[in-house]
Amino acid sequence: MKRIAATYLYPLTGFEPVRNGFVEYEEDGTIVRTGVCEDPAAEEHFVEGALIPGFVNTHCHIELSYMWKLFRRGTGMAGFIDQINALRDTASLEEKLSDIQTWMDRLWQRGVSAMADISNCADSFAIKAASPMYTRTFLEVFGTEPEDCPAVIRSVKALQAEALACGLDAAPTPHACYTMSPQLLTAASAEGLASGFLSYHSEETPQEEEMLRSGSGPMWENRVRAGMSTPPVTGTSSLLYFLDRLQQAHPAPFDEHILLVHEVCMDQEGIDAVKAAMNHPFIALCPLSNLYIHDALPPVELLRANGMKLTVGTDSLSSNDDLNPVMELFCLQENFPQVPLGELLTWACRNGAEFLGKERELGTLEPGKRPGLALIDHLGADGRLTTASASYRIV
Prior knowledge:
Blueprint: E1 2-9, E2 18-25, E3 31-36, E4 46-53, E5 55-60, H1 76-87, H2 93-109, E6 112-119, H3 125-130, E7 134-141, H4 149-165, E8 169-174, H5 182-195, E9 197-202, H6 206-214, H7 218-225, H8 238-249, E10 254-262, H9 268-277, E11 278-285, H10 287-294, H11 300-305, E12 309-312, H12 325-335, H13 341-355, E13 373-376, E14 391-393
Parallel strand pairs: 1-4, 5-6, 6-7, 7-8, 9-10, 10-11, 11-12
Antiparallel strand pairs: 1-2, 2-3, 4-13, 13-14
Helix pairs in contact: 4-5, 5-8, 12-13
């Protein structure tokens, strides 16, 4: 049995840390017990910083790692989509696989124990299957033309078969309201719901809201110029449109675990609608990506006030300079300083594990679990994150 102690221990059974806390664990990482050091100076392994369970990254596109540092910042979503279309598949398969492996290893070394990952192809499957990190793969579906819906679903189900053959947990999921016909949005949602899990890019940018509310704005104009079908103009939010299409798959309430990614534009009306329709809604915050693309952040205080279950993602290296959960938390801390570190870590560990249905193993430091163990160093005198803070895997 091994033992390590630190200035702060965050078991995450609550928000408060244990000062001068220790954790004991078996060789395989199974937690035996936690507690308070009687004499910190007598501890054989005492470290400065915070010991935490492994992170759960609830939104990543690991297959896009080859796009690191290729994108211009601050283009808005319309400009970002233009860049994705121009830069996708500009690297060889060998280069893509090398970058996927590099960043999967880096995430693991930083203490990420599980991840909800988006895939549009099979590039990442073998690497994820061989990783010690648990991943659930969401096979993202696109298609703006209604007549293409059956072919798109056939294609994504063939991709699902490849993922399952690699031993991955994987199922189709819809991308976003602006990249899908109404028919495909419902069909892809039905496939995801059948698996018990669904991840959906929702209200990521005001430009998305313009499309649905008034049939205007840069994203609408891009689609028209490209000769693509546009989503229906509903006069309401894109989230309410999604809920309507979701209920075409099966009536509410939804017992499935549904992750709404970004929610930069979420308002009280949307929150009320989600709580009425979903029994297990989660929201993935990806603050550095939101700032990178369109310099905006989700209404975190509104979400907290309504008891929404928040999680944390890194998004991809097309819209982020790094895949670093600590820097995502630092960004949230700096913009929402009233949120204590223990709550931020709960979002990044415990809530993510619950979304993935892995709360019996991951997310908290409790006896019998194997969540992984990480250290966050270079905390401030007040125990908060600093620009120098970084995380390292202990086990």
